[in-house]
Amino acid sequence: MGKLKDWADSNSQFITIEDGESLEIVYKGWKNVPNRFDTDKETIRYIFLVDGQEKYWENGSGRTARFFDEVKEGEPVKITRKGEGQKTKYELEPLIK
């Protein structure tokens, strides 16, 4: 990782996951927000604790919503990104069994 990428990641309010990368982070809850691409619709903003900072991940997938409906606030989760662009899929895994 380069210095500029480190700076961008630490200053962003959103988490960034590269293709093939996994993040282990703490789930802090969710809220409905306007969809940035279609303001007539809403999406879900998931809230996480990442390295002591609150960061967000917006995802409108029903599969993702069903997963996080079973996760309690304060529990760690693992998110793995597979693919790029519109072919991106995320593997979600609770880290507490």
Would you kindly provide a written description of the structure presented here, covering whatever features stand out?
The chain has 97 residues and is an alpha+beta fold. It has one domain (25-94). It contains 2 helices and 5 strands; from the N terminus they run αβββαββ. The protein has helices at residues 3-11, 62-69; strands at residues 22-34, 42-50, 53-58, 76-82, 89-94. Strand 1 (22-34) and strand 2 (42-50) form a beta hairpin. The longest helix is centred in the first third of the chain and has 9 residues, at 3-11. It is globular, with a radius of gyration of 14 Å. The model has no long low-confidence stretch (mean pLDDT 91).
Please outline the helices and strands.
Layout: H1 3-11, E1 22-34, E2 42-50, E3 53-58, H2 62-69, E4 76-82, E5 89-94
Antiparallel strand pairs: 1-2, 1-4, 2-3, 4-5
Key phrases:
single chain; 97 residues; alpha+beta; five-stranded antiparallel beta sheet; 2 helices; 5 strands; 18% helix; globular
**Average of per-residue pLDDT values:** 91
Measured distance between first and last alpha carbons: 32 Å
SSE class? alpha+beta
- Helix-strand pattern: HEEEHEE
Q: List the total number of helices.
A: 2
DSSP summary, beta strand count: 5
Gyration radius (Cα, Å) is 14 Å
How are the strands ordered across the major sheet? 3-2-1-4-5
Q: Regions with pLDDT < 50 over 5+ consecutive residues?
A: none
The oligomeric state is: single chain
Which shape, going by the Cα principal axes?
A: globular
Largest sheet: 5 strands, antiparallel
Strand content: 35-45%
What's the helical proportion of residues? 10-25%
Number of structural units classed as domains: 1
